[in-house]
């Protein structure tokens, strides 16, 4: 007796499977792109494997059919996102993603967007301001805008200041996640003239910054300067940078913005440069 063949096609889902699919589909799944998701899944998988994987290993890890993985791998190889070994049996990430990312480095984008905002703050507050980012154990000053009035305290672009005793450093620590904060402290090396701080005082300072959302205090480096520092936050609400104003009060007859007004203007500038601007995208 000859067996009757059944047409090939996707298996009909049970009521339970259909219900589960429906319940798992939310607003974020409205515009799904399965092929794109599949390609991104392969890239993310290979990113965790410096030595690469064979096609069979990729199929096993992703729990998909060999044919769909083969087609996607061939497209990624053709577009040079993935390389195939000489023997043809192992796949690994190429440097294309690295090259694309560095065509518009995040720090350069941040600086380019920050400069006009910082310039507007300096003109309105009649104070200088600078942008600091974490770099190899301390804080690197990436941008500096002087007060248009000529009277200001400023730091040179490219200067490195302490992570553990400056307003910028404390704000960056306060708005880092626990793992990054530990790494930053482990990499820290004292700069010339750094003011020591006890662990108890440091933790109290960081907690105070998180509670207020900013830091304001007398400078620990210069007399007559009040440091005001706000975080520039990324999408995950951790600090990309610290925007700091070393406020100096004039005692002549000129009536410029006071400390409270300068703080409000700096807060507005930091908000402008934070989440809604997508700087970490």
Description of the molecule:
This protein is 42% helix and 16% strand. With 281 residues, it is of the alpha+beta class. The protein has two domains: 33-99, Winged helix-like DNA-binding domain superfamily/Winged helix DNA-binding domain (Arc Repressor Mutant, subunit A, Orthogonal Bundle), CATH 1.10.10; 106-277, Beta-Lactamase (2-Layer Sandwich). Strand 6 and strand 7 (226-233) form a beta hairpin. Helix 3 packs across helix 4 and helix 6 runs antiparallel to helix 10. The longest helix has 20 residues, at 106-125. The N and C termini lie far apart (63 Å). The model is unreliable at 1-27 and 276-281 (pLDDT under 50).
List the helices and strands and how they pair.
Elements: H1 15-24, H2 34-47, H3 55-62, H4 66-78, E1 82-84, E2 91-93, H5 96-101, H6 106-125, E3 129-135, E4 138-145, E5 160-161, H7 167-174, H8 178-187, H9 199-212, E6 215-218, E7 226-233, E8 239-247, H10 259-273
Antiparallel strand pairs: 1-2, 3-4, 3-8, 4-5, 6-7, 7-8
Q: Report strand order across the widest sheet.
A: 5-4-3-8-7-6
Write down how many β-strands occur, each being a DSSP E stretch of 2 or more residues: 8
Overall pLDDT score: 86
- Span of the ends, CA to CA: 63 Å
CATH C-level class of the largest domain? Alpha Beta
CATH topology of the largest domain: Beta-Lactamase
The count of helical stretches stands at 10
Structural class: alpha+beta
Helix residue percentage: 40-55%
The fourth-level CATH homologous superfamily of the largest domain is GAF domain
User: Mind telling me the C-alpha Rg?
Assistant: 27 Å
Biggest sheet layout: 6 strands, antiparallel
> What is the string of SSEs from the N terminus onward?
HHHHEEHHEEEHHHEEEH
- How would you describe the shape? elongated
Question: What fraction of residues sit in β-strands?
Answer: 15-25%
Given as residue ranges, the uncertain stretches (5+ residues, pLDDT < 50) are 1-27, 276-281
Instruction: Give the tally of structural domains.
Output: 2
CATH architecture type of the largest domain: 2-Layer Sandwich
